[in-house]
Every structure is written in structure tokens, then in C-alpha cells.
Design a protein that fits this description.
single chain, alpha+beta, eight-stranded antiparallel sheet, seven-stranded antiparallel sheet, globular
């Protein structure tokens, strides 16, 4: 089933492409970032541009851990960084990491925290810390959710290998309300490996499982022969989850908040995809009076070069109260250049304690760039200057008058192309949503 108005919208896309190309000739092309073809560590294939559209991102990398914020959608990517300068996504990277993320629930309303969910956001990166602040302004629900990802080390003598997640919710409304937070990670590493998942007690999980406590299991690991991601969900300072469900990503996305979609030992398949596994984490509800805050905290540990992620060491460090290693984690000379290329310089301005970094667009031969590809990507290890900007705020598309930009048009085109060439059954709700956005865009064009 094809989506209506696709031809007309693609015509609009071609028009914008031509406009952007002409404009780029007269502007400084150093501010553009391009998607690049993936190369394996053994390959010396020259990287080539895949898109004329600007796709700037905010990124931070230290040691073996990297975070990239997707400017056009308000999503985040997680990477393993290898000593040679290669990086590899540890969650599904297309389209624009939008299959992973967080959700906020209040009453019967659930808000997908990114631009596709209609939520405005702000991005910021400073040193080894990346942050996205989402603002919910609805009739009855007003809240702000800060997603902070801080790179540190699992122990004092270790290189940076941990990403600390803090999801803080603030009630900005005038009434007391109940909230809940949900996190979904679209995993990729275990889908072509010996097993999809493992825990501290279960060495192999290849079908749906659900946990109501992580006291024994401690963590969820997704890994292949070279790379591992370990989501640590139990320990000192970690917020205990209400449920943790391992299931097919499509089933998770369409399933109930409480995990009632779970079917024991059902394999990770659906009518939409094969062996597409995901981790669905739901935390307990909490009540906030106006102005009050509440946060959930957990950790993601990265393992590279076939090494097991150091979650056990991290838990020992947390139990001993050793948290200072997040302030200034040691990094090797092999990855220092990557950190420099993707981290903001210290700012003397007292008014901006956590300055916002706009990652510079780089040619493959002139500097490092974290790739959108699921394959290993070679990074140039020469540091490149980056120009910080004071703020970066992005409004959601309204139903009738969207705030158009090329990045968002490109993401819609990618999604439409993916649906129409997948050969799978298309979700009717997705068709309705895309058609509504096409109608809104065309309406704005007619009024210009």
C-alpha cells in the first residue's frame, strides 16, 4: 500500500534539494555534515557523500564510549569507540536513532520524547556530557524532561567506558500530577550473534523475557564478537525499574505501557521484522507537585575489541562511593583526538556553565565524524576546531503550520522510502500520521 501524495511531496523535495544546493555554493561549506558510506576496519574505500542535506549533530566521545545527539529529531545515538578511531553504533541507527528513546506518561497520555512525538527540545554538549531537554506544553500536562548522558569510567584506573543516564522530570504545571518514565533501546549487536541477550545469571536469551526485579539479573547485555553494550539496572544509586521486557521492537512500540504484550518464549519476530530485538524499561510512577522534580538513573557500559563490559567493576565502584571518576575520566592518546573533535572547549562565560556545541561538518579527510551507519566507521584522529553556539532549540511541527526545515523533510523522505520499499505490511497509524504531516506541509506551501 502506497502513501498518498508521495509523488507531490517528492516533487517538493526535489525543489528544496535544488535550492539547498545552489545556496550551499555561496556559503561556507565547512558548516555542512554529510552521511558517509560505511567502511569496515579492514577496508580503505574512500568515503563518499550520500546526501546534499545538512545533518549537523552534537556529539561527545571519551575512551570507548560515544554519544551523538541528532539535531533534526531530538534523538540520541550510542557508540562504541575503538582505539584505532573506528566507531560502531550499539543501538539501531536508522532512521536517525528514532527507534530508541524515552517516553513520559501522565494520566492516560503518553508522550514520545522527540520531534516525531510533537515535543520541542533543546540540545547541549559540554566535554563528556550530552543533554536533551524536552518541553511538554499540553492543556492539562506541562512538564520538562531532561535527558543527561555523561561519559565516565567503570573504575578509577579504567579508561572511560560508561554512559550515565539521568532522566529528570519537572512538573512545570500548576497542579499536582502523577508521571512515569519508559525507555526503549532498539538493540542490534546480538541479532547476528550467538545470543540476543544475557544477564548476570542467564547466559543466553533468544526469546521474550520479562523481569519485575533486576536484583539478581543486574544487567542486560547485547553483544557480538567485537562490541558489547551492557545496560546496568540494579546497584547503588540506580533507580530500580518496575519491569524490564525483552521483545521484538515492533511489538514493544505498539504494546501497552505496562508490558502486558509480553508472551513468554515468543521469538523476536513480528509481521514487520525478523529477529528485531529491543529492551523495554518501565520505572515506577511518581507524584510531583508544581515545581517538584524526580529522576531515574541507570548506566550503559561499552565493551570493545571483544572485551566483556565492566558492569561488575562499575557496581563495585558505586558501592564504594567512588563517583569522582565521572568528573575527569582518563582517556588514552588514541582516543584523545576523537574527544577533542567532538567536545566543546571550556567557556569563560559564567552565564553558560554547560555550553552548547554544534559539531562542525567535516570532509572525510579533514576530521572526525561519528557515522549513522550500523557498520564500523573510520575516524580521522586529527582534532578539528569546533565553534560553540549559545543555544540550540527546536520546535515541534504543529498540525497546521509546521516549522519546515531541510533536515525534517529529509527524515520524512527517508521514512516514506523505507516504508514503500520494505515489502512489509505498513502500520495504518503510521500512514495516517505521515499523510497528516504531508497535508500540513503542502498547506503551508500554498500560503507562502
Amino acid at each position: 500500500m502506497r502513501i498518498k501524495k508521495t509523488f507531490l511531496f517528492l516533487s517538493f523535495f526535489v525543489f528544496l534539494s535544488s535550492f539547498a544546493l545552489v545556496k550551499s555554493v555561496s556559503e561556507d561549506q565547512a558548516s555542512s555534515t554529510f552521511d558517509e558510506d560505511a567502511v569496515s576496519p579492514e577496508s580503505s574505500v574512500k568515503l563518499e557523500k550520500k546526501s546534499k542535506f545538512v545533518r549537523k549533530r552534537f556529539a561527545a566521545a571519551k575512551g570507548s564510549a560515544g554519544v551523538a545527539l541528532q539535531k533534526n529529531l531530538g534523538t540520541f545515538g550510542l557508540y562504541a569507540v575503538f582505539p584505532e578511531g573506528f566507531v560502531k553504533p550499539v543501538i539501531a541507527s536508522r532512521p536517525d536513532f528514532s527507534s530508541s528513546g524515552f517516553y513520559l506518561k501522565s494520566g492516560n497520555s503518553v508522550y514520545q520524547l522527540n520531534r516525531l512525538g510533537g515535543i520541542p527540545y533543546r540540545l547541549a554538549v559540554s566535554g563528556g556530557r550530552a543533554e536533551i531537554v524536552y518541553t511538554i506544553r499540553k492543556d492539562r500536562v506541562q512538564a520538562e524532561v531532561s535527558l543527561s548522558m555523561e561519559i565516565g569510567a567503570s573504575s578509577k584506573d579504567a579508561e572511560a567506558d560508561v554512559i550515565k543516564f539521568t532522566v529528570e522530570t519537572t512538573n512545570t504545571g500548576s497542579d499536582k500530577r502523577n508521571f512515569a518514565v519508559r525507555g526503549v533501546f532498539d538493540t542490534v549487536l546480538g541479532e547476528m550473534a550467538y545470543t540476543n541477550f544475557s544477564t548476570a545469571k542467564i547466559p543466553r536469551i533468544d526469546a521474550e523475557r520479562q523481569f519485575t526485579t533486576m536484583l539478581t539479573e543486574k544487567w542486560i547485555v547485547s553483544k557480538n564478537e567485537s562490541t558489547a553494550m551492557q545496560i546496568v539496572l540494579s546497584g547503588t544509586g540506580i533507580t530500580p525499574p518496575k519491569t524490564v521486557t525483552l521483545a521484538n521492537r515492533d511489538i514493544v512500540s505498539s504494546g501497552a505501557w505496562d508490558g502486558s504484550y509480553y508472551r513468554e518464549n515468543r521469538i523476536f519476530n513480528s509481521i514487520m521484522s525478523y529477529n528485531n530485538s529491543a529492551v523495554d524499561i518501565v520505572w515506577n510512577d511518581f507524584s510531583l507537585s508544581p515545581g517538584q522534580k524526580s529522576a531515574v538513573t541507570f548506566y550503559v557500559v561499552i565493551g570493545v575489541e571483544g572485551r566483556e563490559p565492566a558492569g561488575a567493576k562499575l557496581l563495585n565502584s558505586l558501592a564504594a562511593g567512588e563517583t569522582v571518576f565521572f568528573a575527569a575520566p582518563a582517556i588514552s592518546s588514541a582516543t584523545a583526538a576523537i574527544s577533542a573533535a567532538h567536545s566543546a572547549p571550556e567557556s569563560p562565560a559564567a552565564s553558560a556553565p554547560a555550553e552548547t556545541l554544534e559539531a562542525e561538518g567535516l570532509d572525510p579527510g579533514t576530521g572526525g565524524k561519528i557515522s549513522d551507519s550500523d557498520e564500523p566507521q573510520k575516524l580521522n584522529t586529527e582534532a578539528v576546531d569546533s565553534s560553540p553556539i549559545e543555544s540550540a532549540e527546536f520546535n515541534a511541527l504543529s498540525d497546521k503550520y509546521p516549522n519546515l526545515d531541510l533536515d525534517y523533510v529529509q527524515s520524512l523522505i527517508d521514512r516514506i522510502n523505507g516504508l514503500e520499499t520494505s515489502g512489509n505490511i505498513i502500520d495504518p497509524d503510521e500512514i495516517v500520521r505521515l499523510n497528516d504531516e504531508l497535508d500540513a506541509i503542502l498547506s503551508v506551501l500554498r500560503n507562502k
